[in-house]
Amino acid sequence: MARSPKTNLLELPVELIALIFTYLDDEDVFAGRLANKALEEASFALFGKRFFRKKGFMVTSLALECLRSIADHQKLRKYIQHIWFNPDCFTFARPECAPDDEDSDMDDADELITPFERDPEAPVGEFDKLARQYEAYRQVMRDHAQLLHTNKLETTLAAIMGKLPNITTIGMRRSEEYSPYGWSILQDAVGEDPRVLGPIPSGPVYSLSGPTNLFIAIIKATANAKVSLERLYTDAIEIDNVRDDLPHGLSQATLDAACSSVLYIELNAVKGWLNTRWELASQPYNTLRRPEDFGSGLTRLLKATCNLKELGLQIFPDRKQSHLLAPSARNPDSWRLSYPYVALQRLSSAVSLSNLTRVKLEKVTTTSATLKAFLMPCAKNLESLKIRDVRLLSSAQTSPTNPAVFATYSEDEERPWQTFFSFLLGSCPGLSYILFHHLMHARGTILFTEETPPPMPAEELDFLINHVPPSYGESGLFTKSSAEKGEPLKSFEDLTVELVEEDQILVQANSVAGQTQYAFFSIKDGVKDHGPRSAYPKIAECAVALFESIYNEAVRIFCGKNKWIFYVGGDAPQILRL
């Protein structure tokens, strides 16, 4: 019986070859494309769609040059639809190859020497390796800063985006779970992962964050390149701190040009903790000292999204606050002066997002009245609603010009969530998907039960409200004060730090009048091994919060072996010995 002749793969129709490639793993696709020019051409469409439809990049010149080369490729550029950036590059982190600040007495940062240079017994090869890593670190940090703090990133992105005909989505992702182009190159050069965040600074800063500067560059580049974006998502950006009247800010015209076509936006807004730069006649950012300024940038941005259909919104307080704790202890009304509360209140009264069909709201404190006002314009179109970590207060009225002024109201809304649920039931006929997670009221969390639980005994309720526990898991702060009208205690005889147990520190402040403020910090590995590089960021963060509440001034803390040195304002350093 005669055998049928073997079919050569290259004799198959191009369409069939392309279909075969869709069943191959990535490694086999690469091998097949390298095997033959005809196979490379036949699989090009699959190659472009699979590997270039969505790409992530570090904010470095090397990574942007890679993106530029893709945009310059006549065939490949059309497959790019979605690009995202990791705004981090050793953010808040100092790699092992870099010298400790206290280990160097050089005035010029460029002349810092590594710890190995001071050790005559260190292996020469190890020193050479650290020196190369440190030089690579200095170069990339200089490059990263130049991109974010000048118009270089904006200009580069505008030129690139103008060459991408099908770009519709731009975003940010900052996590080790995602792999932007360029991160492994930096890890090989410096010896550490540039995506890993270090301890968040506990004090105010003098510049907008990396994600905020990246956002400004993206918006300006989109407007200049006249790109019609459909989807935009961000990391935590200080949108309200961005000025609208400066060249490096965002004007309403720029926002309108960049965002008028956006259909989906996921926005994480945070209030930046920024210092006033007294040497400048005009501040390069909004310091947001007044609550009536909260929400201004957020409102301007969402006003520009006139066709928006899907919104994901998180509003964080600044780095000194938690969305789970009231700004003033045991005073639920203090929520009404918080950044998330005032920002959402302003947004709901100033912007009408009538085209929304899907809404996701997270980490805000508000009232049922504000939430209803926010959703009312889109109630008829709303199909999906997700609410996570949201606290509803009773709908007390506040002054629109001064949120600190509370008007009286006749009815106390005991169940604000019930009011909101009734609104959804009666006003949102198309709502087909809902997700509720960790819903909160003024003093606690909502529990969904089939039967109403019995009332709590009065003594237990008093214990839960007024008891001060001995510890609050690594980052808690507790205060006791008999000062009138809640004024902070300012006149203290001494401050002491005491090792209570092997893993617990007590910081105590005694006033002349016998009043006391104190905080407990729980740590895992004890105080005895507390060296200058470990620094216990959680402990230092809490200590800064305590001292600032005492002195009502900015505080900086430096952690050394067996002692903390802290500065109050511009005063001389004070030492706490452990």
From TrEMBL:
Which residue range or ranges hold the F-box domain?
6-55
What is this protein's record name?
Answer: F-box domain-containing protein
Xref: PROSITE patterns: FBOX
The record's section on InterPro entries has: F-box_dom
